[in-house]
């Protein structure tokens, strides 16, 4: 981290977040989700070896987990939904039900063609037809569930969480009857084409939730290293596809916006999971430098995102990926991960500050077209991480204003009601535990 914050400040932050949670939970009645995103290997090994975590801190977060994570994990254990790509009714052009398939989000029937094919792009307008193929939703639910199960086991040592996680891993990646082939050849599919699109690579973006939960479960007597070995084989094959296939190469080379940034995050986390630490070290550093230089202006604007119809959403979405890249680069020893200055003076912090100005004004005078709302839910998570990272007082002051608004937004729009105590815990234990990026 860039700054060391004294323990009094940390406790004040914790009290601030706890107080907000108290009064907002009165309106919500029950917190439904608390999710870990990234846990560094050093933290996992230290904690699992000797459990040397401040006892008061552990007690606080065990209480919070009992109220949130464990309830969710218990529900996941009882969930008997089948998670498999073979369930879809529409087959991809390969006619192989094991090939993952999803429809491109912003593509609609062409009104100038009798059969509507090929579909045409209307940016920012989601076609509900995408939900007729369940692969996308099932895979996202899978990553979220395994992430939560790993987190819940970490705090409780409840082996039923590990057993359920292994069951899901085997069901989706390994079992010959239900497994997914290790490619995304038909992700982001546009009807009328014969192959998927590079943007479909984004579908597997939240895989880091699952990959980072696995080290949390290895200490369990129920952990199955044979299944883990097979999972590594699957990701090794997928990594080859991701980095050598025409779609994968195009996703990297043509993805100047958030697609490319999330591609880099995906590559880095997979390299880490496969044990290729030197490659991950080099890749995360170079990717972060590259994305800051090409994706952020000296003002902090992200031009490839602000040109979109949902310019507010995508500016924050790309920031999430940049933060994950910076965390990986920092983890692998790049000291300037959070302070790197681009060739024209661009910085990650400037990108946060650019959005913050408009967030404090409810999006007023945002100088770009934006057909969506100026939602705060995801940006508040970024802002909390920003304070954790740079210790800039203005972020704490902004949180006093924006966090209550975000909580009301969550309730009104029935969004996942996530709290971010783990960001504070990372300070108190001097570790990197990320819980603010969805």
TrEMBL record:
Query: What are the boundaries of the signal sequence?
Result: 1-27
Residue intervals of the Alginate lyase domain = 84-366
Q: Name one GO molecular function term.
A: lyase activity
* CC per GO annotation: periplasmic space
- Biological source species: Rhizophagus irregularis (strain DAOM 181602 / DAOM 197198 / MUCL 43194) (Arbuscular mycorrhizal fungus)
Keyword Acyltransferase on this protein? no
Q: Which keywords appear in this protein's UniProt record, sorted alphabetically?
A: Lyase, Signal
Lineage top rank: taxon:
Eukaryota
Q: Which InterPro entries does the annotation name?
A: Alginate_lyase_dom, Chondroitin_lyas
Q: What is this protein called?
A: Alginate lyase domain-containing protein
Keyword ATP-binding listed: no
